Amino acid sequence: MLDRLFSLIADMTEEPREPFQEGDYRVAAAALLVHVMSADGVAAPVERQRLEAVLSAGFDLSAADTRRLVVFATDAEAAEDNWTSFAQTLASHLDEDGRRRVVDMMWAVVLADGRAHELEEAVVERAAELLGVDMPAR
After folding, report:
1. Count of H-run helices and E-run strands, the chain
2. Largest Cα–Cα distance of the chain, in whole Å?
3. Which string of DSSP letters, residue by residue, matches 56-90?
4. How many CA within 13 A on the CB side of residue 95?
5. Residue 35 DSSP SS3
6. Of 98, 89, 108, which Cα lies nearest the Cα of 37?
């Protein structure tokens, strides 16, 4: 009985653990979305809102966890020399349907401001290629 009480007290006083770690496919997907969002040099507020919405819905996250994921992914994207490593992580962790959903998430972020910049399109197309996802003819 005392052990359970001490365990409960310890749980209440411990720092919450970070739900996202390096190598987590959700971080890789979010980092790709962060990268494509800023590929044209402008990360519009509507793109940031769409980023959070697709991550929340796509990974069934609370608003707080979505914000944590975006911060973690933004840091990971800034620290990485080559964004293609995120695509490689996704390719090794997700099935075809999961990889296709990530590409769809990328398009949702790109089109959030009503237009796709050629640099954003190039990033999505290259990511789709690395993920083995066929792009429909445009």
Report:
1. 7, 0
2. 66
3. HHHHT--HHHHHHHHHHHHHHHHH-S-THHHHHHH
4. 1
5. helix
6. 108
The Cα–Cα gap between 117 and 132 comes to 22
Are 30 and 69 a contacting pair, CB within 8 Å? yes
Full pLDDT tens readout for the chain, 138 residues: 545 544 545 445 444 556 666 778 999 999 999 999 988 888 889 999 999 999 999 999 999 999 999 999 999 999 988 888 999 999 999 999 999 999 999 999 999 988 889 999 999 999 999 999 987 655
Residue 59 CB contacts under 8 Å (≥ 6 apart), including other chains: 26, 29, 69
At 23, the amino acid letter reads G
Is the full-model pTM beyond 0.85?
no
77: Cα within 13 Å, side-chain hemisphere: 21
Q: Which two tokens stand for residue 22?
A: 């390096």
What is the C-alpha separation between 36 and 51, in angstroms, rounded? 10
Token representation of residue 75: 């840091």
Instruction: Please answer whether residues 29 and 102 qualify as being in contact, where contact means their C-beta atoms are separated by less than 8 angstroms.
Output: yes
